[in-house]
Amino acid sequence: MPFSQLEADLAARRAAHLYRRRPIVTSAQGPYVEVDGQRLANFCSNDYLGLANHPQIIAAAMAGAQRWGVGSGASHLVCGHQSAHEECEHKLAAFVGKPAALTFATGYLGNLGVITGLVGREDAVFADKLNHASLNDACLLSRAAFKRYPHNDLAALEHLLATTTARRKLIVVDAVFSMDGDCAPLADLLALAEQFDAWLFVDDAHGFGVLGDGRGSLAEAGIDSPRIIYLATLGKAAGVAGAFVAAEQVVIDYLINMAGPYIYTTAAPALIAEAVSASLDVISSEDWRRERLTGHIQLLRNALADAGHPLMPSTTPIQPLAMPDSESALALSAALRQRGHWVAAIRPPTVPTPRLRITLSAAHETADVEHLIADLCELLAQSASN
Ligand SMILES: *Cc1c(COP(=O)(O)O)cnc(C)c1O
User: Fold this and answer.
1) Residue 145, CB half-sphere, CA atoms under 13 Å: how many?
2) Is the pTM here over 0.85, yes or no?
3) Does the C-beta of 134 come closer than 6 Å to ligand 1?
4) Angle at 205 between CA 204 and CA 211, to 5 degrees
5) Which atom number of ligand 1 is nearest to the Cα of residue 206?
6) Which domains, and CATH codes, for the chain?
7) By C-alpha distance, which of 282, 288, 284, 317 is closest to 300?
8) 108 pocket-lining for ligand 1 (C-beta < 6 Å)
9) Ligand 1 atom nearest residue 132's Cα
10) Which of 135, 138, 137, 114 minimizes the C-alpha distance to 244?
11) How far apart (Å, rounded) are the C-alpha atoms in residues 6 and 10?
């Protein structure tokens, strides 16, 4: 049996309630989705503004397919960089107030590209312990010294920065931590970067579109500096796909020349760039989506706190409920699903401690959130009395 070791590993995962499978969704994305023939209210998507199925953005993608076809043909440096990509980059840079931007096919690739492109063997990266897995993979792949500090622990970071002899110093953080929903202290991190002449790389996968009137976590924090390299993904609040890095022109030029994960991959289809451009228009014009989202967040947090089941500290659409173990997280997720709510149980090794990760969207109706609250409170009360 060539794969008996793999079989044994998977069996151990199953026994530890850590085995993963992919639910098959048979509908478009939206506040309700159909899964295995069941209609579920969707509380696990990152489509925070409800743009994944927005008519104006769909129309832009379809017009993009008509004009540009579906394939880009080659990488950006060969012949795949079309004027739709170029215009989209200019629009993204202007939107977040940076001189230049570069798009990637996914956020994972963007993180690999920025970190492996900017640092190498003689350098060091300083990373929050709760950073997204793609940032950790990128740091390992870069071969720079990989120094991790406890979550949001500025004193620990300062100590690491004060004692390094690295050529280049890159601080790497999630702006909004993807499984916790809390935010990095960006102004303090920038102050440390200035003090120790480091660069600050901010992954705003969950802040872009939502925070700072849609312009993201830097706008929300009211900070701006040439030493900040900003990345946001476009498959979450923006509702499309891909990612962009926004930074000083020299950083973008450097990445175009040096970043393997940018250079050696086929450009995303131009229709994606057209859809992203349309999404930016919606993000900047439809403020009601952010207002409605904020209302849902407050409703959920207040109701669960009042019922004695406070959520983890978070002001973002990511609202996790800490669970004692993976088994009870799975059981509560399954019980909610029987009642028509889809909430993901997130378990190690994705996170250090199990939780239900509830995500809210402007696409939800207030009644959807109220139904979730009622069922969640009832199930939590039942399990406490058992
Ligand atoms: C989702 C996510 C990514 C990856 O982005 P994709 O476009 O999904 O590849 C990167 N960083 C963070 C913090 C994320 O949550």
Assistant:
1) 15
2) yes
3) yes
4) 60
5) 15
6) 14-49+287-385 (3.90.1150.10), 55-285 (3.40.640.10)
7) 317
8) yes
9) 13
10) 114
11) 6
